[in-house]
Write a structure and sequence with these properties.
By secondary structure, the chain is of the alpha/beta class. Helices cover 38% and strands 15% of the residues.
Length: 323
């Protein structure tokens, strides 16, 4: 049994919800919070599937000893405001907890891993959150986890109320100059910093149409100089590809359906310090692999032309999206 509260964020995928919910209940949490976004206006298929999800939640938890808390939204909030609302509701009620979306399937050892680390680092403000994913990165040591930026760590994760209260959906307290200074502390490569400046600018100008919350979370954490726990064993499998997926309707980057393994018992690193290689590994292997090797050489002129245009203000993430 785990004493750590769990939040499951759902929408209109009953079969995924059933599968993930069963894996959560197998860990026997004392408290389970379930948030469901509402059906999109005029979408009858959504209405039917959302009703199915509610039935799955009620049927699957029936007879279990879990204390079930539900938030069924009567309107559609979307992929940005929905998870934000869910997590805020969660931390209005708990001090710390584990968070899943409906396509994130945890290994059983993910729960004791989170429970131990939530307790170990609860008062250590150098640590912002605890991730569950590993996509092949190894250190060559026997430590169970390292610390990194955590930009790939919210497919099954855990954190504290103290961290979530830093969350700023609109990034009101961050401008481009401040973020440029912040990002240097996490990424040494010019191209990697450019990538994150572009993402930050796109969020600030809402070029993603309110479809994200995780970038804002990372940036809010980075603003405080915090690090994320990154396990050396993959603990969460994302099963969310398909025509009904919003962000993962294909697996062109190889991030989905990664096998999971056991991580317990934990071998803790001696110090809380940023691993210099893990973020570089993720950027080169999965985030912008086209910027390296022969393809990167071929893009060299394109990147320099783009930098010049940015400097001259002719294009870039800081230009407002055209209506």
């Amino acid at each position: 049994m785990t004493s750590v509260p769990v939040l499951l964020i759902t929408f209109n995928r009953p079969e995924y919800t059933r599968k993930v919910l069963k894996s959560i209940l197998a860990a026997k949490p004392e408290d389970l919070y379930v948030f469901q976004d509402g059906a999109r206006e005029g979408n009858e298929d959504d209405k039917r599937k959302c009703a199915e999800v509610k039935n799955v939640v009620e049927e699957t938890t029936s007879g279990s000893e879990v204390r079930l808390h539900t938030f069924y939204s009567d309107k559609n909030m979307g992929c940005g405001h929905g998870p934000m609302t869910a997590i805020s509701w969660f931390f209005d009620n708990v001090e710390q907890g584990v968070i899943f979306e409906d396509d994130c399937l945890p290994n059983p050892s993910f729960f004791p891993y989170c429970e131990e680390l939530l307790d170990k680092y609860k008062d250590d403000e150098r640590v912002g959150f605890i991730g569950g994913c590993n996509y092949g990165y190894k250190t060559g040591t026997n430590e169970s986890y390292v610390f990194g930026s955590g930009h790939h760590q919210t497919w099954g994760w855990a954190t504290w109320r103290r961290t979530w209260k830093l969350f700023d959906y609109y990034l009101k307290d961050l401008d481009s100059d401040s973020f440029r200074h912040i990002i240097k502390n996490y990424y040494k490569s010019i191209r990697q910093r450019e990538y994150w400046m572009e993402i930050f600018g796109a969020v600030k100008t809402n070029r993603f149409d309110d479809s994200c919350w995780d970038y804002q979370f990372y940036f809010s954490v980075w603003k405080e100089g915090m690090l994320a726990v990154c396990p050396m064993v993959n603990l969460v499998e994302n099963i969310g590809s398909g025509v009904d997926a919003t962000h993962t309707n294909n697996d062109s980057r190889g991030l989905l359906y990664q096998t999971t393994g056991n991580i317990m018992p934990l071998k803790h690193p001696k110090n809380v310090k940023k691993d210099k290689k893990i973020d570089n590994y993720m950027m080169k292997r999965f985030i912008i692999p086209y910027e390296y090797g022969m393809s990167g050489i071929k893009r060299w002129q394109y990147r320099w032309n783009k930098r010049i245009k940015h400097l001259l203000g002719h294009e870039g993430p800081w230009r407002k999206k055209q209506s």
